[in-house]
Specification:
By secondary structure, the protein is an alpha+beta fold. The protein is built from 12 helices and 15 strands. The protein has 4 domains: 56 residues; 93 residues, PAS domain (Beta-Lactamase), CATH 3.30.450.20; 71 residues, Helix Hairpins; 151 residues, Heat Shock Protein 90, CATH 3.30.565.10. The strands form 4 sheets. Strands 5-4-8-7-6 form a 5-stranded antiparallel beta sheet, sandwiched between helices. A 5-stranded mixed beta sheet has the order 10-12-13-15-14. Strand 12 and strand 13 form a beta hairpin. The longest helix has 59 residues. The protein starts with a strand and ends in an 11-residue tail after the last strand. Bound molecules: adenosine-5'-diphosphate (ADP). The site of adenosine-5'-diphosphate has 20 residues, from helix 10 and helix 12.
Length: 462
């Protein structure tokens, strides 16, 4: 069947068959009348007709020709029946051909629809899926697979090595072919980025038990692995942090028991060290409890409007004596504005930052707390000191658990290395963010934002 633009006169001239909807249809034409017949058929018709006429005329004249006449009439009847059946048959043939064509078309549409649905299902899977044929060539790779391996989805007919160049995976496929099943194999990728994948696979067997291909499913374990690593590091850090003061306490107690208690001067010094380390343990356990509460997701916040200036004054009051020991001046430069926060948690954030500013600030220096309205209804609070500051590469890391710029100094100051990670958690859980700026040798400034309390008006500081 040839598809044509329009049933032009040229088409009508050139088309040996029938034109319908601009299409030249290549089927046997139905014959309803002798005039639709082919030239050969017309010839037979004309020849038979002429002889009928001639012999008919003779028949009337000569009765001996009557049997021939009857024979001719029968022949004419057979011919008419033949042409009638031929027309009927051609009609039936055309309609059955049309039906077959319609059926084929709807079958093609159904197959295309099923394919589209399958593709949608496979591409919406979170797991990577790879289908191999009997010779180990890729038949199908879904979108998640392409994303996991950083390749295009069009890998059809390529082997694993050609498509991915990962020998470990190629060996796994070979193993799968002999063993027929792979469960929970962990594959570590380094490119395009570090990833851990769990691979499950099965060989596809045909009815006779012969290998027909293989299917592999890849689960991304990267997040779980990272969480596991963080947890392991955390446990190792906690154990280390607990062990140091505990072994000191144990050592001093043993020395006291061994006789040092008999020297009152030495005994007092040892007991003071024990007390200091016990306090350090206490602080560490308190911070760990806060972290566990924050991470459990059970943190209950009692959000309310907190006027900034009085809140800063209250924190200064708590740190007055400690600041006095280092002759540090405490300056409150906040404007009259309120934040929407939990009073206890807000106090915890401010105390941690002011504590650090005093701890790491210089002797006789100044600690300033300020706060003003920033963009998008957020209040920006800063805590600034004029101490040694923080090196640029550590500015982000100081918010990590147990990260310290100077470990010895932090411990000597009674630090746990958890204060800023608690601050970050608390600020974020109240809808804000936290960051630090510093110029080495010229102090450090810690900033955090919190939503402004609704209905509070900004008033300039007098
Ligand atoms: P720590 O209990 O050790 O103070 P933090 O989490 O509060 O733990 O602080 C992490 C580290 O960040 C500190 O050990 C210190 O090295 C550094 N740091 C924090 N605040 C300041 C500051 N104001 N000036 C200089 N360094 C600071």
């Amino acid at each position: 069947m040839k598809k044509l633009q329009a049933p032009s006169s040229k088409l009508q001239r050139n088309c040996k068959f029938q034109i319908r909807n601009g299409v030249c249809r290549d089927f046997v034409r139905p014959l309803h009348t002798p005039f639709d017949a082919t030239p050969l058929e017309l010839g037979i018709w004309s020849f038979s007709g002429a002889w009928c006429l001639v012999l008919g005329a003779w028949g009337f004249v000569l009765p001996m020709f009557w049997p021939i006449l009857i024979l001719l009439a029968a022949l004419a009847a057979i011919l008419v029946t033949h042409f009638w059946w031929r027309g009927k048959f051609a009609q039936l043939k055309e309609s059955s051909r049309n039906e077959v064509e319609t059926l084929n078309q709807s079958q093609r549409q159904a197959v295309a629809q099923v394919q589209t649905q399958q593709e949608a299902v496979l591409n919406s899977m979170a797991e990577g899926l790879l289908l191999l044929d009997g010779s180990g060539r890729i038949q199908l790779a879904n979108r998640a697979f392409a994303d996991l391996f950083g390749v295009s989805q069009n890998l059809r007919s390529r082997t694993i090595l050609e498509a991915l160049r990962i020998h470990e995976l190629a060996e796994l496929v070979d193993f799968l072919i002999t063993e027929k099943r792979v469960i929970g194999y962990e594959l570590k990728l380094t490119l395009p980025q570090e990833r851990w994948l769990q691979v499950n696979g099965a060989a596809i067997l045909n009815g006779g038990g012969h290998r027909h291909g293989a299917i592999l499913v890849f689960h991304d374990l990267t997040r779980l692995k990272k969480l596991e690593r963080t947890r392991q590091e955390f446990v190792a850090n906690v154990s280390h942090e607990l062990r140091t003061p505990l072994s000191l306490i144990k050592g001093y107690v043993e020395t006291l028991l061994d006789g040092a208690r008999n020297n009152p001067e030495v005994a007092v010094r040892f007991l003071q060290t024990i007390e200091r380390n016990a306090e350090r343990l206490n602080l560490l356990i308190e911070d760990l409890l806060v972290i566990s509460e924050l991470e459990s997701g059970r943190l209950k916040l009692n959000l309310q409007a907190i006027p900034l200036r009085p809140a800063v004054e209250k924190v200064f009051e708590d740190f007055k004596s400690r600041a006095g020991l280092k002759e540090i001046r405490l300056l409150n430069k906040t404007i009259e504005i309120s934040v929407q926060a939990d009073p206890n948690r807000f106090g915890q954030v401010l105390s941690n930052l002011v504590d650090n500013a005093i701890k790491y600030g210089r002797m006789g220096g100044t600690v300033t707390v300020g706060g003003e309205l920033s963009a998008a209804g957020q209040v920006e609070v800063f805590v600034e000191d004029d101490g040694p500051g923080i090196p640029p590469d550590a500015l982000e890391r100081v918010f990590e658990r147990f990260y310290r710029v100077d470990k010895a100094r932090s411990r000597e100051q009674g630090g746990t290395g958890l204060g800023l990670s608690i601050v970050k958690h608390l600020v974020q859980s109240q809808g804000g963010r936290v960051w630090a700026k510093s110029e080495l040798g010229h102090g450090a400034t810690f900033y955090f934002t919190l939503p402004q309390a609704a209905g509070t008006v900004q008033q300039p500081l007098l």
